[in-house]
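Hello,

I think I submitted the zinc ion job twice by accident. Can you confirm which output corresponds to this input? Input:
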Amino acid sequence: MGEQQTEAVVLYEAVDGVATVTMSRPEYHNAQNSQMTYALDAALKRASDDDEVKVIVLRGAGKHFSAGHDIGTPGRDINKTFDRASLWYDHVGKPGGEFLYVREQEVYLGMCRRWRDLPKPTIAMVHGACVAGGLMLAWVCDLIIASDDAFFSDPVVRMGIPGVEYFAHPYELNPRIAKEFLFLGERMSAERAYQMGMVNRVVPREELEKETYGIASRIGKMPRMGLALTKQAVNHSEELMGKRSAMDAAFGWHHFAHVHNELISGDKLGGFDAKAMAQSQRSKEDEAK
Ligand code: ZN
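Support: Only one job matched these inputs. Its output is below.
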């Protein structure tokens, strides 16, 4: 457990003012372990620091954008210490609910907020699965461009957990659709996500790159400071709509659920690993047929 992948888990490239950050654990559908989280943070910092970079594109290597948090690959590393991006202390070795609470303040809630506030425009280029923790990565981006085969889901209610740690659901979708999305845990197609206003464009898979980089290059012609201020203005408006405090409350409920799970089943995820989640998803889809 906790094997470090030796090749890069995040790739970085900057061409013509556009930085591309690629999640690269394709054999695990880019399941996000801590190694990848910190590599993403480093790549985004590098893009922010580079005066030549105007716009950032976040994408996934392989068949899918992201299968979510790593809950079962050989590279799962939740017991590992990393150089942290916040002043939260190390979660490793902490007792009871403190272990996960401290870890998730840093790597999920804290890191997502940090990325969302990066003062350059970011675009998530989504194909295939964008599930649970994967949603958080797409949602922190300013724009989402999806291919027509992309789908979105947050199935964690099945684990007794009220949505992923970065609880943006009622801001990304209207509240009634957010409830449906969570209660059923079903896949939302790119087309429906577009209709709901969660996605900016849906294009055929073969046109995804062209469309995304076309938009990136048009944004890149705008003045840097104008873009930064515009982003801050919109993000701040969301804060005034309560996003930050709503998310803080949801994070508390999320952690009550982790601890409750541990009390009744001995496992913070209610006994679900990646395989059990995939299995339950399949049987649910069979029922629906
Ligand atoms: Zn959690």
